[in-house]
Structures are given as C-alpha cells and as structure tokens.
Structure to design on (568 residues):
C-alpha cells in the first residue's frame, strides 16, 4: 500500500480498514516540550505534534466556565504555588514549576440549590465561548499537512466536577441522582450547541476527541450501573450528535474504566484512548475483548519512557504492538502522556520504534 | 436498646438522619456510647470497605457512608472524650512533596477514621518536615500518597529519613507498586483504601 495521508490513515483505522502503518499520536506535558525547546532540541514556534509528524492535531476551543468572561483571580501565592479563583467560583492551587491537576481548595457551587441559581442559567450557548480563530487556524494547519484534525474537549463528567468538585459530584450521584443527571444533560446540550455553532462558522473537524476521566487505580469512580443511569444518557446524546455530523468519536478516560466499556461502546464511542496501565488497564485484554468493536489508542506503559529506559521501552512495545496492530484499529500512543523527566532522544526512540514496528506489509 | 444492625445499615446506606436519630436515642437512654462505635459505626465502615474492595461499592457509596458515620460521631464525640476512650492508633497521612492530588489520600483517611483510628491529615505537598510534625503529634504510622511517577521518588527520602525513628512508613497511589515499596524499604504498600486499613491493622491492632 502506498503511503497514506494522516487523514486517510486515522479515518481508516477508526473503521478497522487496512492502512500502511499504525497511526502515531502522543500527549506531552507542557513542561516537557518547554524543556526540549530550552535545550535546543526543537523549535519554539512548532508544536510537538508538528515537530514529530504525529498523525492527529487537536484544538481545545470551548470555554465551559459558568462565567466565561471571568479572568482567573490570584488569591494567594507562595514560593511553589499560586492559588486562583476561577470562573466557576472554584478556588484551585497550581504549581509554578510543573503541570499537574490543580489542588481543589473550595467550590462555591456545591449543591443543587447553588447549581440551579448560580450555574445552570448561565451555561448557555454563546459564540464567545468558542475560540473560533484558534480553531480555524489549527484546522487550517492540519489541513495543509493533511493531518487528522480533532476538536478536543471535555464531555459531561469532566465538565461537571470543575463546577461542583469531585466530592460533591460523587456524593450527589448517590444522594441526589436527578441533580447529577440535570447537570450532565445541561452540559450535553451546551456542548452540542457549541459544536453546532463552531461547525457552522468555522467548518467541521475530521473527528471529535472527548475527554472524561472516569476512573482511578483499579476501579471507576462510580459503578457501571450508576454510569449507565447518570452519565451514559449524556454521552449517548453528545456522541449521537457527532455521528449525525458524519464524524467519529475518540473518548479519552484516565484510570480503570474497563467495567464501563460495554456501556461506553453502546453510547457510540469509536475509539478508546489512554488505557492507563498503572491504573490496571490491560491493552491486550481489552484488545481481545473489545478490539473488534472499537479502535484503541494508547495502553503502552509510559514508565520506561519516563525513566529513559530504552531496553524497557523495547520490551513494552514489542510485547504489545505486534499483537494489537492485527486488526488495523490501533493507534500508537503511550498510556497517558510524556512527562518532563523524558529525554528528547528517548521519546524519539519510542516514536521511531512505534513507526517501524507498526508498518504493515500489505 | 440500640439496634446495632439498624445503625450499621443506616451508615452503609448513607442515611445520615437515621444515624443521628439512632445515636441521639442511645444517648438519651444513657447507653454505652462505646458500643455505638464498636458494634455499630466501625463494623459498618469496615463492611463498606470490604464491599469497596470487592467492587460492590464505589466512591459515592463510600462517601455517603463516611458522611453518615461522621454525623453520628459528631454527636457522641464530647461523651467519647469524657469516657477516656483510646483510639486504635494514630496515623499521619499526606500526599508527598510536589503532588497536589488528594482524592486517593482522602479516601484512605476516610476509611482509617471509619475503622477507629485517629488520622492527622497533613494535606497535600508534604515534605519530610511536615511528616515530622505528624510524628510529633503522636503518629505511629506515616501514610504517603502519590499520583505521579515524578513525585513518587520522594517517598524514598521519607522512608530513609524515618527508618530508625520507630515510625512505620506505608505508601500508595496510582504509580506505586509492591515492588517499588520493597525497593525503597517502605514498611507496607496498599493499592486501595480498604487495603490500607488492613495494613494499619497489621501494625497497630495486633
């Protein structure tokens, strides 16, 4: 088979059709790329995706904050961290020196009454919530290089917890499920409305990449039954809309979400991404059980990469890639993202290994 | 006389008002408050922990049970203090330096409290000095949590620091494995909140 463009390759892989090689994609911590730029290993004016020639380009264009015009206010600062009040009324602490999920200090919207009064009425479709210029520009850059372009962004689970906090959301699931359903439905409608606006004004992408971290080590946050009752309807609704536009859906979830997978597949996902090994996700098992139904991206343990352990990388890649590329539906990606401890040359080795082993002899 | 099964059921189902009613009735009847803990609340939290381990309960169920127990505990705490009841032991818990992820740490703290231990929650981003504060407050065990591969390396510094101080150091978190715990010489490792309780039981409840 002659060399395919990235758009052709990924589009075909999401349908399990034959391709020239596995798709290549990766996520990087901001500080990893910054570090490599500072070392002169890659230019500052290029994204890592463009630099390495990754097959998928993304753009996160939506602002889902309750007050989307709000500029984060610095409320405290120490040597290592800054604490902000954000547009959801949440107080969050972030590190200065590295990227990580912020510490959740306080949520001013913590129950149904506050949600109904101070959040829900403001979560309406408005084109100002969309970074249309950024989206157009990212889409054009991808089109120019024939890279598969995704609008990327959170789905409802990851949209709710920045407003009310993980703990209030999870308590609500057990104590006031109708409230959680209402929040999920509100965000589903908002997402669909924003996608409609964006597609009409700036064109469609090649696919949609939703992010909903629904698990942690060894288990999902909620039972499969609770997922089914509270989150699944919103997933199904948003994915059905995306499919109605002729677009495929990649769904990212960190953590162990295997018990949720049958329902996620029923909700319509075309590809599962991340497949976090350290949380208990087993790429080979998932491939065997679900690989004929959905495409898979990730599941290659990032720890040898983070430790600059080249023999370890080879062992990990060789143990998985030759097997999971069997049905054309595997896209090469680590099981999470590349942290700043990774040397540029190490990532290059990992990438090149995926590229060479992932070639098909058609 | 308190129906301890009803109290346990109310906690397991997260029925906070039912728990308050049962506990208040027991107090009015001048019943033994220690029995409320030993025969009602603690067994209920241990049961929900077991269900969590068996994937029969998830985080929402754990949180509502802890919330219900806390409601009952708040009512009897003044009386418990007067009774001179001693806790099973004291544990200082925190996420290690550089790590702000506290969901896992909070779950472990909830389960330890529910199992009858005193928990000194040191919060997030804890350096050795912060864990030392916990030891000064009487902690017999230090429980360290880390979500990131980049921060888990600091656990070795903690283990090394407390090695000869008569304090046990146990570790957990997404990237942490039994092999890593053994490699750095930690006293124990658990991959879930209920396992952490059992680990602590092994050290303090013998």
């Amino acid at each position: 088979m002659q060399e395919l463009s990235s758009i052709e390759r990924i589009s075909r892989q999401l349908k399990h059709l034959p391709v020239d090689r596995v798709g290549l994609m990766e996520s990087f911590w901001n500080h990893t790329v910054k570090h490599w730029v500072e070392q002169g290993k890659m230019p500052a004016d290029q994204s890592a995706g463009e630099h390495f020639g990754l097959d998928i380009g993304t753009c996160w264009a939506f602002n889902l904050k309750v007050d989307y015009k709000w500029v984060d206010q610095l409320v405290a600062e120490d040597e290592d961290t800054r604490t902000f009040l954000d547009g959801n009324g949440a107080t969050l602490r972030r590190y200065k020196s590295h990227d990580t999920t912020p510490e959740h200090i306080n949520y001013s919207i913590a129950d149904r009454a506050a949600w109904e009064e101070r959040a829900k009425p403001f979560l309406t479709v408005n084109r100002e919530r969309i970074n249309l210029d950024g989206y157009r520009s990212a889409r054009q850059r991808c089109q120019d290089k024939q890279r598969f372009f995704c609008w990327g962004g959170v789905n409802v689970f990851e949209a709710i917890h920045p407003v009310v906090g993980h703990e209030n959301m999870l308590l609500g699931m057990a104590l006031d499920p109708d409230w959680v359903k209402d929040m999920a439905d509100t965000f589903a409608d908002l997402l669909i409305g924003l996608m409609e606006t964006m597609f009409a004004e700036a064109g469609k992408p090649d696919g949609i990449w939703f992010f909903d971290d629904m698990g942690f080590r060894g288990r999902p946050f909620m039972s499969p039954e609770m997922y089914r009752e509270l989150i699944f309807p919103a997933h199904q609704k948003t994915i059905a809309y995306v499919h109605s536009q002729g677009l495929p859906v990649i769904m990212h979830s960190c953590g162990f979400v295997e018990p949720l997978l049958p329902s996620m597949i029923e909700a319509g996902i075309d590809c599962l991404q991340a497949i976090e090994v350290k949380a208990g996700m087993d790429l080979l098992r998932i491939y065997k059980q679900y690989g004929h139904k959905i495409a898979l991206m990730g599941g290659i343990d990032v720890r040898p990469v983070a430790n600059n352990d080249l023999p370890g990388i080879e062992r990990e890649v060789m143990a998985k890639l030759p097997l999971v590329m069997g049905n054309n539906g595997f896209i090469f990606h680590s099981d999470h993202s590349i942290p700043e401890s990774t040397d540029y040359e190490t990532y290059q080795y990992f990438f090149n290994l995926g590229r060479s082993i992932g070639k098909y002899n058609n | 006389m308190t129906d301890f099964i009803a109290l346990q059921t109310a906690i397991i189902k997260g029925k906070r008002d039912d728990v308050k009613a049962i506990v208040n009735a027991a107090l009015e009847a001048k019943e033994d408050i220690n029995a409320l803990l030993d025969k009602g609340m603690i067994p209920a939290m241990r049961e929900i922990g077991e269900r969590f381990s068996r994937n029969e309960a998830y985080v929402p169920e754990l949180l509502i049970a802890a919330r219900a127990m806390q409601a009952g505990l708040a009512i009897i705490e003044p009386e418990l203090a007067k009774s001179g009841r001693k806790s099973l032991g004291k544990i200082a818990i925190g996420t290690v330096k550089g790590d702000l992820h506290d969901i896992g740490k909070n779950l472990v703290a909830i389960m330890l409290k529910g199992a009858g231990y005193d928990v000194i929650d040191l919060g997030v981003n804890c350096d050795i000095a912060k864990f030392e504060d916990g030891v000064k407050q009487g902690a017999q065990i230090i429980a360290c949590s880390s979500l990131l591969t980049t921060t888990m390396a600091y656990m070795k510094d903690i283990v090394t620091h407390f090695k000869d101080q008569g304090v046990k150091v146990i570790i957990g978190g997404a990237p942490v494995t039994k092999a890593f715990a053994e490699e750095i010489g930690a006293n124990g490792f658990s991959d879930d909140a209920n396992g952490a309780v059992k680990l602590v039981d092994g050290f303090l409840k013998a």
The radius of gyration of chain A is 20 Å. The interface with chain B takes residues 80-81, 93-95, 98, 100-104, 166-167, 170-171, 173-175, 216-223, 226, 259, 278-279, 302-303, 306-307, 339-341 of chain A (CB under 8 Å). The mean pLDDT of chain A is 96. The first helix of chain A runs from residue 6 to 13.
